């Protein structure tokens, strides 16, 4: 199997976190990895073929020199992934708390420094293993910390179908090599413009990366549509609540805990979603249909 060199030659850039000459700045790398590698296979007729397989890389996160977690990732947006992970876990509360996010693939590590330099040990003391692809982990009393959505947003079926058609038309790593999940955030307007689309080896990684991009861009989830290729679990619902996204859409199914949590937290779950057909499990009053 062959792989091109890592795309990590760019030096870190400084991003201002606010306006004015005294605004804090974030030093961040842009260390993408190649999306796929090539492999030699023998097909059903006994003939040799060259195919693409998605990458998978271990990335260990250090927060103020404390080891937090090792994530297995495609490496398409590692800095956004780490930022979203830290935010969703409650390990970093504010974007201005971040001083630097530096990914180094030669060591398989991401060094995150904050301005507070507070050890994350207290929140990390309580650990929940989740049903993320492989195994995921949530730190802290995450169920007790969720705030239900209070929204009057509605989603026309035509907009939902437009969003699904837009995602279907994307040139994706999945179409080339399979074996990855994709997540997307879209505007809830008639043409459903795409804000972000991220693919990774696990859907929980992809949603964390989108959270990271939203954080950097100061984008909110209010009224928007979040789409995932994977099943909807309680962890996915929790992250939708954290992003304040009212519409969570999957081409797959859901779990009982996801159903109960979404009902309680005010998230509309739409599963088995294809253009022209879907199943609405919670808060169906938000889905509007044009009378024939």
Automatic annotation (TrEMBL):
<dbReference type="GO" id="GO:0006777">
    <property type="term" value="P:Mo-molybdopterin cofactor biosynthetic process"/>
</dbReference>
<feature type="region of interest" description="Disordered">
    <location>
        <begin position="1"/>
        <end position="25"/>
    </location>
</feature>
<dbReference type="InterPro" id="IPR003786">
    <property type="entry name" value="FdhD"/>
</dbReference>
<keyword id="KW-0963">Cytoplasm</keyword>
<feature type="compositionally biased region" description="Low complexity">
    <location>
        <begin position="1"/>
        <end position="16"/>
    </location>
</feature>
<dbReference type="GO" id="GO:0005737">
    <property type="term" value="C:cytoplasm"/>
</dbReference>
<comment type="function">
    <text>Required for formate dehydrogenase (FDH) activity. Acts as a sulfur carrier protein that transfers sulfur from IscS to the molybdenum cofactor prior to its insertion into FDH.</text>
</comment>
<feature type="active site" description="Cysteine persulfide intermediate">
    <location>
        <position position="133"/>
    </location>
</feature>
<dbReference type="Pfam" id="PF02634">
    <property type="entry name" value="FdhD-NarQ"/>
</dbReference>
<protein>
    <recommendedName>
        <fullName>Sulfur carrier protein FdhD</fullName>
    </recommendedName>
</protein>
<dbReference type="GO" id="GO:0016783">
    <property type="term" value="F:sulfurtransferase activity"/>
</dbReference>
<keyword id="KW-0808">Transferase</keyword>
<dbReference type="GO" id="GO:0097163">
    <property type="term" value="F:sulfur carrier activity"/>
</dbReference>
<keyword id="KW-0501">Molybdenum cofactor biosynthesis</keyword>
<comment type="similarity">
    <text>Belongs to the FdhD family.</text>
</comment>
<dbReference type="InterPro" id="IPR016193">
    <property type="entry name" value="Cytidine_deaminase-like"/>
</dbReference>
């Amino acid at each position: 199997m062959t792989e091109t060199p890592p795309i990590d030659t760019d030096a870190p850039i400084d991003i201002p976190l606010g306006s004015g000459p005294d605004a804090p700045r974030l030093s961040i790398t842009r260390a993408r990895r190649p999306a796929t590698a090539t492999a030699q296979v023998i097909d059903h007729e006994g003939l040799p073929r060259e195919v693409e397989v998605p990458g998978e890389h271990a990335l260990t996160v250090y927060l103020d020199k404390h080891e937090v977690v090792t994530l297995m990732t495609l490496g398409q947006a590692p800095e956004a992934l780490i930022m979203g992970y830290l935010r969703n876990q409650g390990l970093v509360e504010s974007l201005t708390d971040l001083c630097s996010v530096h990914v180094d693939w030669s060591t398989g590590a991401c060094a995150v420094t904050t301005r507070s330099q507070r050890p994350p040990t207290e929140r990390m003391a309580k650990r929940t293993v989740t049903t993320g692809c492989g195994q995921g982990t949530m730190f802290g009393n995450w169920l007790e910390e969720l705030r239900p959505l209070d929204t009057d947003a509605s989603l026309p079926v035509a907009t939902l179908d437009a969003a699904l058609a837009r995602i279907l038309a994307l040139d994706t790593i999945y179409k080339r090599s399979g074996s990855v999940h994709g997540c997307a955030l879209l505007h809830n307007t008639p043409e459903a413009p795409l804000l972000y689309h991220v693919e990774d080896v696990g859907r929980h990684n992809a949603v964390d990366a989108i959270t990271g991009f939203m954080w950097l861009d100061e984008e909110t989830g209010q009224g928007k549509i979040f789409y995932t290729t994977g099943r909807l679990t309680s962890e996915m619902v929790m992250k939708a609540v954290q992003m304040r996204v009212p519409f969570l859409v999957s081409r797959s199914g859901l779990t009982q805990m996801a159903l109960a949590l979404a009902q309680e937290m005010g998230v509309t779950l739409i599963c088995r979603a294809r253009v022209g057909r879907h199943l609405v499990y919670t808060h169906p009053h938000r889905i509007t249909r044009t009378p024939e």
